[in-house]
Protein backbone atom coordinates (compact mmCIF):
# COMPACT_ATOMS: atom_id res chain seq x y z
CA UNK A 1 0.00 0.00 0.00
CA UNK A 2 1.23 3.51 -0.79
CA UNK A 3 2.13 5.52 2.26
CA UNK A 4 1.64 9.24 2.76
CA UNK A 5 3.16 11.92 4.97
CA UNK A 6 2.10 15.39 5.92
CA UNK A 7 4.59 18.16 6.66
CA UNK A 8 3.61 21.08 8.87
CA UNK A 9 5.21 24.48 9.33
CA UNK A 10 3.20 26.35 11.92
CA UNK A 11 3.53 30.09 12.50
CA UNK A 12 1.66 32.54 14.71
CA UNK A 13 -1.32 33.04 12.41
CA UNK A 14 -0.61 30.74 9.52
CA UNK A 15 0.15 27.13 8.88
CA UNK A 16 1.80 25.78 5.74
CA UNK A 17 1.34 22.11 4.93
CA UNK A 18 2.25 19.63 2.24
CA UNK A 19 1.30 16.04 1.51
CA UNK A 20 3.75 13.55 0.01
CA UNK A 21 3.25 9.99 -1.12
CA UNK A 22 6.08 7.57 -0.39
CA UNK A 23 6.51 4.27 -2.23
CA UNK A 24 9.49 3.20 -0.14
CA UNK A 25 12.00 4.80 -2.54
CA UNK A 26 10.85 8.21 -3.72
CA UNK A 27 8.86 11.00 -2.17
CA UNK A 28 6.28 12.52 -4.49
CA UNK A 29 4.63 15.77 -3.41
CA UNK A 30 0.88 15.72 -4.09
CA UNK A 31 -0.50 18.73 -2.26
CA UNK A 32 0.64 22.04 -0.85
CA UNK A 33 -1.55 24.31 1.17
CA UNK A 34 -1.97 26.97 3.80
CA UNK A 35 -4.28 28.01 6.55
CA UNK A 36 -4.04 31.77 7.03
CA UNK A 37 -5.79 34.13 9.42
CA UNK A 38 -5.81 31.77 12.41
CA UNK A 39 -7.38 33.70 15.30
CA UNK A 40 -9.18 36.17 13.01
CA UNK A 41 -10.73 34.97 9.73
CA UNK A 42 -9.29 31.54 8.94
CA UNK A 43 -8.93 30.50 5.32
CA UNK A 44 -7.78 27.05 4.18
CA UNK A 45 -6.60 26.42 0.66
CA UNK A 46 -4.96 23.30 -0.76
CA UNK A 47 -3.64 22.91 -4.30
CA UNK A 48 -2.13 20.13 -6.36
CA UNK A 49 1.29 20.55 -7.89
CA UNK A 50 -0.11 22.08 -11.08
CA UNK A 51 -1.70 24.83 -8.96
CA UNK A 52 -5.25 23.48 -9.26
CA UNK A 53 -7.30 24.25 -6.15
CA UNK A 54 -8.31 20.98 -4.47
CA UNK A 55 -10.21 22.44 -1.57
CA UNK A 56 -10.88 25.86 -0.10
CA UNK A 57 -12.72 26.77 3.05
CA UNK A 58 -13.39 30.02 4.90
CA UNK A 59 -14.61 30.04 8.45
CA UNK A 60 -16.97 32.90 9.22
CA UNK A 61 -16.51 34.15 12.79
CA UNK A 62 -13.52 31.84 13.06
CA UNK A 63 -11.70 33.82 15.74
CA UNK A 64 -12.64 31.30 18.43
CA UNK A 65 -11.33 28.30 16.51
CA UNK A 66 -8.12 26.75 17.78
CA UNK A 67 -5.45 24.58 16.21
CA UNK A 68 -7.30 21.36 17.03
CA UNK A 69 -10.36 22.40 14.98
CA UNK A 70 -8.18 23.04 11.95
CA UNK A 71 -6.18 19.86 12.28
CA UNK A 72 -9.30 17.74 12.65
CA UNK A 73 -10.69 19.17 9.41
CA UNK A 74 -7.35 19.08 7.63
CA UNK A 75 -6.54 15.48 8.55
CA UNK A 76 -10.08 14.34 7.70
CA UNK A 77 -9.78 16.03 4.31
CA UNK A 78 -6.38 14.42 3.72
CA UNK A 79 -7.76 10.97 4.58
CA UNK A 80 -10.59 11.44 2.09
CA UNK A 81 -8.25 12.82 -0.52
CA UNK A 82 -5.69 10.03 -0.16
CA UNK A 83 -7.97 7.23 -1.28
CA UNK A 84 -6.12 3.96 -0.68
CA UNK A 85 -2.91 5.52 0.60
CA UNK A 86 -2.29 5.41 4.34
CA UNK A 87 -1.17 8.47 6.31
CA UNK A 88 1.81 7.20 8.32
CA UNK A 89 3.26 10.33 9.87
CA UNK A 90 3.43 14.07 10.34
CA UNK A 91 6.74 15.92 10.12
CA UNK A 92 7.05 19.31 11.80
CA UNK A 93 9.43 22.18 11.40
CA UNK A 94 10.60 23.02 14.93
CA UNK A 95 12.79 26.05 15.07
CA UNK A 96 14.94 25.27 18.10
CA UNK A 97 16.41 21.93 19.11
CA UNK A 98 18.81 23.43 21.65
CA UNK A 99 22.09 21.66 22.33
CA UNK A 100 20.40 18.30 22.84
CA UNK A 101 18.45 17.62 19.62
CA UNK A 102 20.35 17.74 16.39
CA UNK A 103 18.71 15.04 14.34
CA UNK A 104 15.05 14.63 13.41
CA UNK A 105 13.41 12.78 16.27
CA UNK A 106 10.11 10.99 16.95
CA UNK A 107 7.85 13.06 19.21
CA UNK A 108 7.12 11.78 22.70
CA UNK A 109 5.70 13.63 25.73
CA UNK A 110 9.15 13.94 27.23
CA UNK A 111 10.56 15.37 24.02
CA UNK A 112 7.75 17.88 23.94
CA UNK A 113 8.59 18.94 27.50
CA UNK A 114 12.24 19.45 26.58
CA UNK A 115 11.28 21.50 23.52
CA UNK A 116 8.94 23.69 25.58
CA UNK A 117 11.87 24.61 27.78
CA UNK A 118 13.46 26.16 24.66
CA UNK A 119 10.56 28.58 24.02
CA UNK A 120 12.44 31.57 25.50
CA UNK A 121 15.13 31.02 22.86
CA UNK A 122 12.66 31.23 19.97
CA UNK A 123 9.57 33.03 21.25
CA UNK A 124 8.35 33.97 17.78
CA UNK A 125 8.22 30.43 16.39
CA UNK A 126 8.68 27.63 18.93
CA UNK A 127 5.30 28.00 20.74
CA UNK A 128 3.42 27.70 17.44
CA UNK A 129 5.52 24.76 16.24
CA UNK A 130 4.77 22.92 19.49
CA UNK A 131 1.08 23.88 19.52
CA UNK A 132 0.76 22.17 16.13
CA UNK A 133 2.35 18.99 17.50
CA UNK A 134 0.01 18.99 20.49
CA UNK A 135 -3.05 19.63 18.34
CA UNK A 136 -2.21 16.74 16.00
CA UNK A 137 -1.59 14.49 19.03
CA UNK A 138 -4.98 15.45 20.47
CA UNK A 139 -6.82 14.75 17.23
CA UNK A 140 -4.80 11.68 16.08
CA UNK A 141 -3.01 10.25 19.11
CA UNK A 142 -1.72 7.23 17.17
CA UNK A 143 -0.21 9.17 14.27
CA UNK A 144 3.60 9.18 14.45
CA UNK A 145 5.05 12.68 14.60
CA UNK A 146 8.61 13.78 13.90
CA UNK A 147 10.27 17.05 14.89
CA UNK A 148 12.85 18.46 12.43
CA UNK A 149 15.02 21.24 13.80
CA UNK A 150 16.19 24.43 12.12
CA UNK A 151 19.24 24.43 14.37
CA UNK A 152 20.33 20.86 13.51
CA UNK A 153 22.34 21.53 10.34
CA UNK A 154 24.67 23.85 12.28
CA UNK A 155 25.31 21.44 15.13
CA UNK A 156 28.79 20.42 14.00
CA UNK A 157 30.14 23.92 13.46
CA UNK A 158 33.61 24.44 14.92
CA UNK A 159 33.43 25.64 18.54
CA UNK A 160 35.10 28.90 17.57
CA UNK A 161 32.05 29.71 15.41
CA UNK A 162 29.47 28.80 18.04
CA UNK A 163 31.06 30.10 21.24
CA UNK A 164 30.10 33.51 22.62
CA UNK A 165 32.70 35.55 24.49
CA UNK A 166 30.92 35.35 27.83
CA UNK A 167 31.84 33.56 31.09
CA UNK A 168 32.19 29.82 30.58
CA UNK A 169 29.45 28.96 33.08
CA UNK A 170 26.90 30.59 30.77
CA UNK A 171 28.28 28.79 27.75
CA UNK A 172 27.95 25.51 29.65
CA UNK A 173 24.29 26.39 30.27
CA UNK A 174 23.77 26.48 26.48
CA UNK A 175 24.15 30.19 25.82
CA UNK A 176 25.91 29.92 22.47
CA UNK A 177 25.35 30.54 18.78
CA UNK A 178 23.02 27.87 17.34
CA UNK A 179 22.05 29.20 13.91
CA UNK A 180 18.72 28.68 12.13
CA UNK A 181 17.18 28.08 8.67
CA UNK A 182 19.03 24.75 8.81
CA UNK A 183 16.26 22.78 7.07
CA UNK A 184 16.52 25.12 4.10
CA UNK A 185 20.34 25.05 4.09
CA UNK A 186 20.42 21.28 4.24
CA UNK A 187 18.03 21.08 1.29
CA UNK A 188 20.21 23.47 -0.73
CA UNK A 189 23.41 21.59 0.15
CA UNK A 190 21.87 18.26 -0.91
CA UNK A 191 20.29 19.66 -4.07
CA UNK A 192 23.53 21.37 -5.06
CA UNK A 193 25.38 18.07 -4.64
CA UNK A 194 23.00 16.60 -7.25
CA UNK A 195 23.12 19.41 -9.81
CA UNK A 196 26.67 20.79 -9.35
CA UNK A 197 28.77 18.36 -7.29
CA UNK A 198 32.01 20.27 -7.93
CA UNK A 199 30.59 23.46 -6.44
CA UNK A 200 28.92 21.54 -3.59
CA UNK A 201 32.34 20.18 -2.64
CA UNK A 202 33.74 23.72 -2.42
CA UNK A 203 33.17 26.83 -0.29
CA UNK A 204 29.77 28.43 -0.72
CA UNK A 205 27.59 31.02 0.94
CA UNK A 206 23.85 30.40 0.86
CA UNK A 207 21.70 33.50 1.34
CA UNK A 208 18.28 32.51 2.66
CA UNK A 209 16.45 35.80 2.20
CA UNK A 210 12.80 35.70 3.25
CA UNK A 211 10.92 37.49 6.02
CA UNK A 212 13.56 35.93 8.24
CA UNK A 213 16.98 36.16 6.61
CA UNK A 214 20.39 34.63 7.21
CA UNK A 215 23.57 33.53 5.47
CA UNK A 216 25.34 30.22 5.91
CA UNK A 217 28.93 29.38 5.06
CA UNK A 218 28.97 25.79 3.80
CA UNK A 219 32.24 24.01 3.12
CA UNK A 220 32.13 20.56 1.53
CA UNK A 221 28.43 20.29 2.38
CA UNK A 222 28.81 21.19 6.07
CA UNK A 223 27.83 24.35 7.93
CA UNK A 224 30.96 26.21 9.03
CA UNK A 225 29.41 29.45 10.23
CA UNK A 226 26.13 31.33 9.98
CA UNK A 227 24.77 34.78 10.72
CA UNK A 228 21.98 33.89 13.14
CA UNK A 229 23.12 33.05 16.64
CA UNK A 230 21.56 32.25 20.02
CA UNK A 231 18.23 33.39 18.61
CA UNK A 232 16.87 34.20 15.15
CA UNK A 233 17.36 37.91 15.89
CA UNK A 234 21.06 37.97 15.07
CA UNK A 235 22.77 38.75 11.79
CA UNK A 236 21.06 40.31 8.79
CA UNK A 237 18.41 43.03 8.70
CA UNK A 238 15.07 41.15 8.37
CA UNK A 239 11.44 41.98 7.68
CA UNK A 240 10.69 43.06 11.25
CA UNK A 241 13.79 41.86 13.15
CA UNK A 242 16.80 44.08 13.79
CA UNK A 243 19.68 41.70 13.07
CA UNK A 244 23.05 42.27 14.75
CA UNK A 245 22.91 45.09 17.25
CA UNK A 246 25.33 46.43 19.84
CA UNK A 247 24.18 44.92 23.17
CA UNK A 248 24.82 48.37 24.60
CA UNK A 249 21.70 49.56 22.77
CA UNK A 250 19.64 47.05 24.73
CA UNK A 251 21.14 48.21 28.03
CA UNK A 252 20.40 51.80 27.06
CA UNK A 253 16.76 50.99 26.26
CA UNK A 254 16.33 49.06 29.51
CA UNK A 255 18.05 51.63 31.70
CA UNK A 256 17.11 54.94 30.08
CA UNK A 257 13.83 54.25 28.30
CA UNK A 258 12.54 52.10 31.16
CA UNK A 259 11.54 49.41 28.68
CA UNK A 260 10.26 46.13 30.04
CA UNK A 261 11.71 42.88 28.65
CA UNK A 262 8.40 42.28 26.84
CA UNK A 263 8.46 45.73 25.22
CA UNK A 264 12.09 45.27 24.22
CA UNK A 265 11.34 41.88 22.72
CA UNK A 266 8.43 43.36 20.72
CA UNK A 267 10.67 46.17 19.47
CA UNK A 268 13.45 43.83 18.33
CA UNK A 269 11.32 41.02 16.87
CA UNK A 270 8.29 42.86 15.46
CA UNK A 271 8.98 46.55 14.96
CA UNK A 272 12.53 46.71 13.63
CA UNK A 273 14.25 45.60 10.43
CA UNK A 274 12.82 46.72 7.08
CA UNK A 275 9.60 47.81 8.78
CA UNK A 276 11.34 49.89 11.42
CA UNK A 277 13.70 51.63 9.00
CA UNK A 278 11.16 52.27 6.24
CA UNK A 279 8.23 53.01 8.52
CA UNK A 280 6.17 51.59 5.63
CA UNK A 281 6.34 47.83 5.35
CA UNK A 282 8.29 44.66 6.10
CA UNK A 283 7.49 43.38 2.62
CA UNK A 284 10.37 43.66 0.16
CA UNK A 285 8.09 43.81 -2.88
CA UNK A 286 6.38 46.87 -1.46
CA UNK A 287 9.67 48.58 -0.58
CA UNK A 288 11.19 47.94 -4.01
CA UNK A 289 8.11 49.50 -5.58
CA UNK A 290 8.31 52.64 -3.42
CA UNK A 291 10.26 55.85 -4.09
CA UNK A 292 9.98 56.94 -0.46
CA UNK A 293 13.55 57.74 0.75
CA UNK A 294 13.05 55.69 3.91
CA UNK A 295 12.06 52.65 1.83
CA UNK A 296 15.14 53.15 -0.33
CA UNK A 297 17.29 53.42 2.78
CA UNK A 298 15.81 50.22 4.23
CA UNK A 299 16.64 48.30 1.03
CA UNK A 300 20.16 49.75 1.02
CA UNK A 301 20.72 48.71 4.64
CA UNK A 302 19.40 45.20 3.90
CA UNK A 303 21.93 44.75 1.05
CA UNK A 304 24.77 46.44 2.92
CA UNK A 305 24.47 43.98 5.79
CA UNK A 306 24.25 40.96 3.48
CA UNK A 307 27.52 41.99 1.83
CA UNK A 308 29.15 42.86 5.16
CA UNK A 309 28.26 39.52 6.74
CA UNK A 310 29.23 37.68 3.55
CA UNK A 311 32.70 39.18 3.89
CA UNK A 312 32.92 37.78 7.42
CA UNK A 313 31.83 34.32 6.26
CA UNK A 314 34.42 34.31 3.46
CA UNK A 315 36.97 34.79 6.19
CA UNK A 316 35.45 31.94 8.27
CA UNK A 317 35.76 29.58 5.28
CA UNK A 318 39.02 30.94 3.94
CA UNK A 319 37.62 31.59 0.45
CA UNK A 320 34.54 31.55 -1.73
CA UNK A 321 33.62 29.44 -4.78
CA UNK A 322 29.87 30.02 -4.98
CA UNK A 323 27.08 32.27 -3.75
CA UNK A 324 23.51 30.97 -3.78
CA UNK A 325 20.34 33.02 -3.45
CA UNK A 326 17.22 31.35 -2.08
CA UNK A 327 13.81 31.96 -0.35
CA UNK A 328 11.19 34.62 -1.23
CA UNK A 329 13.55 37.57 -1.79
CA UNK A 330 16.56 35.55 -2.95
CA UNK A 331 14.56 33.62 -5.56
CA UNK A 332 12.54 36.58 -6.88
CA UNK A 333 14.10 39.98 -6.26
CA UNK A 334 16.35 40.73 -9.27
CA UNK A 335 17.25 44.15 -7.85
CA UNK A 336 18.39 42.79 -4.49
CA UNK A 337 20.58 40.17 -6.17
CA UNK A 338 22.10 42.92 -8.34
CA UNK A 339 22.79 45.24 -5.39
CA UNK A 340 24.30 42.48 -3.22
CA UNK A 341 26.55 41.21 -6.01
CA UNK A 342 27.74 44.75 -6.81
CA UNK A 343 28.94 45.04 -3.23
CA UNK A 344 30.76 41.69 -3.57
CA UNK A 345 32.62 42.70 -6.74
CA UNK A 346 35.89 42.86 -4.77
CA UNK A 347 35.65 39.05 -4.47
CA UNK A 348 35.58 38.75 -8.29
CA UNK A 349 31.82 38.26 -8.27
CA UNK A 350 30.32 39.34 -11.61
CA UNK A 351 26.64 39.09 -12.52
CA UNK A 352 25.17 38.63 -15.99
CA UNK A 353 22.27 41.08 -15.66
CA UNK A 354 20.23 39.44 -18.42
CA UNK A 355 20.54 36.06 -16.74
CA UNK A 356 19.64 37.73 -13.44
CA UNK A 357 16.52 39.32 -14.94
CA UNK A 358 15.49 35.95 -16.40
CA UNK A 359 16.00 34.24 -12.99
CA UNK A 360 18.38 31.76 -14.64
CA UNK A 361 19.79 29.01 -12.45
CA UNK A 362 23.30 30.49 -12.91
CA UNK A 363 23.45 34.29 -13.01
CA UNK A 364 27.24 34.87 -12.92
CA UNK A 365 29.18 35.73 -16.07
CA UNK A 366 31.59 33.22 -17.59
CA UNK A 367 34.46 35.41 -16.26
CA UNK A 368 33.19 35.56 -12.68
CA UNK A 369 35.52 33.68 -10.36
CA UNK A 370 32.60 32.99 -8.03
CA UNK A 371 29.61 31.07 -9.41
CA UNK A 372 26.33 32.73 -8.48
CA UNK A 373 23.21 30.59 -8.48
CA UNK A 374 19.52 31.04 -7.80
CA UNK A 375 18.20 27.84 -6.25
CA UNK A 376 14.67 27.50 -4.89
CA UNK A 377 14.56 26.02 -1.42
CA UNK A 378 12.09 23.29 -0.47
CA UNK A 379 11.85 22.95 3.27
CA UNK A 380 8.76 20.75 2.97
CA UNK A 381 10.63 18.09 0.96
CA UNK A 382 13.52 18.17 3.45
CA UNK A 383 11.08 17.70 6.36
CA UNK A 384 9.34 14.85 4.52
CA UNK A 385 12.65 13.14 3.85
CA UNK A 386 13.75 13.52 7.47
CA UNK A 387 10.39 12.23 8.64
CA UNK A 388 10.62 9.02 6.60
CA UNK A 389 14.19 8.49 7.84
CA UNK A 390 13.22 9.08 11.48
CA UNK A 391 10.21 6.77 11.20
CA UNK A 392 12.40 4.05 9.65
CA UNK A 393 14.83 4.44 12.54
CA UNK A 394 12.12 4.37 15.17
CA UNK A 395 10.51 1.30 13.53
CA UNK A 396 13.76 -0.49 14.31
CA UNK A 397 13.76 0.84 17.90
CA UNK A 398 11.39 -0.07 20.78
CA UNK A 399 7.87 1.25 20.24
CA UNK A 400 7.02 4.75 21.43
CA UNK A 401 3.50 6.08 21.61
CA UNK A 402 2.48 9.66 22.12
CA UNK A 403 -0.22 8.78 24.63
CA UNK A 404 0.83 10.01 28.08
CA UNK A 405 1.57 7.08 30.33
CA UNK A 406 2.63 4.90 27.43
CA UNK A 407 5.87 6.70 26.78
CA UNK A 408 8.62 4.14 27.01
CA UNK A 409 11.11 6.21 25.10
CA UNK A 410 13.47 8.93 26.14
CA UNK A 411 14.32 11.99 24.10
CA UNK A 412 17.27 10.85 22.10
CA UNK A 413 18.74 11.79 18.82
CA UNK A 414 18.40 8.29 17.49
P1 LIG B 1 9.09 33.48 4.99
O1 LIG B 1 10.36 33.77 5.72
O2 LIG B 1 7.87 34.02 5.66
O3 LIG B 1 8.96 32.04 4.50
P2 LIG B 1 9.40 34.09 2.17
O4 LIG B 1 10.57 33.20 1.90
O5 LIG B 1 8.10 33.70 1.55
O6 LIG B 1 9.21 34.40 3.69
O7 LIG B 1 9.80 35.56 1.65
C1 LIG B 1 8.95 36.64 1.81
C2 LIG B 1 9.63 37.88 1.25
O8 LIG B 1 9.90 37.67 -0.14
C3 LIG B 1 8.78 39.15 1.34
O9 LIG B 1 9.57 40.24 1.77
C4 LIG B 1 8.35 39.35 -0.10
O10 LIG B 1 8.11 40.70 -0.40
C5 LIG B 1 9.56 38.84 -0.84
N1 LIG B 1 9.24 38.56 -2.24
C6 LIG B 1 8.45 37.61 -2.75
N2 LIG B 1 8.36 37.74 -4.10
C7 LIG B 1 9.11 38.82 -4.43
C8 LIG B 1 9.43 39.49 -5.64
N3 LIG B 1 8.94 39.07 -6.81
N4 LIG B 1 10.23 40.57 -5.60
C9 LIG B 1 10.72 41.01 -4.43
N5 LIG B 1 10.47 40.44 -3.25
C10 LIG B 1 9.67 39.35 -3.25
Calculate Rg over CA atoms.
22 Å
**Apparent shape:** globular
The biggest beta sheet is recorded as: 8 strands, mixed
Give the CATH architecture of the largest domain.
Answer: 2-Layer Sandwich
Quote the average pLDDT: 91
Please state how the strands of the largest beta sheet are arranged side by side: 5-4-3-2-1-6-8-7
Strand count: 13
Total tally of structural domains: 2
Bound molecules: adenosine-5'-diphosphate
Top CATH class of the largest domain = Alpha Beta
Give the uncertain stretches in residue-range form.
399-414
The fraction of residues assigned to DSSP E strands is 15-25%
Instruction: Indicate the percent of residues in helices.
Output: 25-40%
Please provide the ordered H/E string of secondary-structure elements: EEEEEHEEHHEHHHHEEEHHHHHEHHHEH
Number of alpha- plus pi-helical segments: 16
Rounded to the nearest angstrom, the distance between the terminal CA atoms is: 27 Å
**The CATH H-level homologous superfamily of the largest domain:** ATPase, nucleotide binding domain
Q: Give me the CATH fold name of the largest domain.
A: Nucleotidyltransferase, domain 5
Could you say which structural class the secondary elements and strand pairing correspond to?
alpha/beta
Write up this protein:
This protein is of the alpha/beta class. The protein has two domains: 3-149 and 381-407, Nucleotidyltransferase, domain 5; 197-374, ATPase, nucleotide binding domain (Nucleotidyltransferase, domain 5, 2-Layer Sandwich), CATH 3.30.420.40. Helices cover 39% and strands 20% of the residues. The chain is built from 16 helices and 13 strands. The chain has helices at 67-82, 109-116, 126-139, 159-162, 168-172, 182-195, 197-200, 247-256, 261-270, 273-278, 284-288, 293-317, 327-332, 334-343, 353-357, 379-396; strands spanning 3-10, 15-22, 27-36, 43-48, 53-58, 86-94, 105-106, 144-149, 203-209, 213-219, 222-226, 322-326, 371-374. The strands form two sheets. An eight-stranded mixed beta sheet has the order 5-4-3-2-1-6-8-7. It has a five-stranded mixed beta sheet with strand order 11-10-9-12-13, sandwiched between helices. Strand 4 (43-48) and strand 5 (53-58) form a beta hairpin. Helix 1 (67-82) packs across helix 3 (126-139), helix 6 packs across helix 16 (379-396) and helix 12 (293-317) packs across helix 14. The protein is globular. Residues 399-414 have low confidence and may be disordered. Bound molecules: adenosine-5'-diphosphate (ADP). The site of adenosine-5'-diphosphate (ADP) has 13 residues, from helix 11 and helix 13. Adenosine-5'-diphosphate (ADP) is lined by residues 210-212, 239, 283-285, 288, 327-329, 332-333.
Amino acid sequence: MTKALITLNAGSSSLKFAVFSHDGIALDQKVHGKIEGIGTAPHLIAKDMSGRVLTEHRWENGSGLGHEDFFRQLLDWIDEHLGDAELIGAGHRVVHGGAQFYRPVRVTPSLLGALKALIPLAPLHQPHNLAAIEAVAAVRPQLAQVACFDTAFHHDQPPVASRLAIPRALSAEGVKRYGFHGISYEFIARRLAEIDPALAAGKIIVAHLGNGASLCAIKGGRSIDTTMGFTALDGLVMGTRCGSIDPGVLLYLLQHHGMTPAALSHLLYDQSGLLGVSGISSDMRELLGSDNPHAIEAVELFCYHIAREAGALVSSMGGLDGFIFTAGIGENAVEIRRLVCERLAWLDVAVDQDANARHDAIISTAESRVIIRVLPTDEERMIALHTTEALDRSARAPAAAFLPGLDRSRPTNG
